[in-house]
Design brief:
elongated, about 140 residues, about 70% helix
Length: about 140
């Protein structure tokens, strides 16, 4: 099994097309994370009462400006890069990447490991329990 992984990794890392694909995946993942992290920052500011008056309305305006294209980006990411990341298309009723993560964190295989990693280090530092109730590990 290790020899097979070594051959696959060697092929991926020496092929210029694969390197571009990995670069695009990293770029799209960063943009997705950046949108999510900023939206959750705005949400926390509004919910905590930190912003009142005109600041609250500016936060709503900026938040919805991020939310609407962000949701479309979430669905697009789930059907493209998310499908490549988990090597499967989303199930029916799983339009968003979050919906996929909420199901996959309970998987005992490698997909569950990937989902728990994404939840633990990218998602939940910005919005606790966004991936649902599961044990880190």
């Amino acid at each position: 099994m290790d020899a097979i992984l070594e051959v696959i990794l060697n092929a991926l890392l020496t092929n210029p097309i694969s390197l571009k694909l990995i670069g695009f995946w990293l770029l799209f993942t960063f943009v997705f994370w950046f949108l999510f992290a900023n939206l959750m920052w705005i949400k926390r500011g509004v919910e905590s009462g930190q912003w009142t008056g005109w600041r609250k309305w500016v936060a709503y305006a900026v938040g919805y400006t991020i939310l609407i294209p962000g949701y479309l980006y979430d669905v697009l990411y789930n059907y493209t890069w998310g499908s490549l990341m988990f090597w499967q298309f989303p199930r029916k009723g799983e339009p968003t990447f979050t919906a996929r993560l909420k199901r996959t964190v309970f998987d005992n295989g490698w997909r569950g490991t990937v989902a728990r990693f994404v939840c633990r280090y990218l998602v939940e530092p910005n919005d606790e329990k966004h991936c649902g109730e599961y044990k880190h590990g």
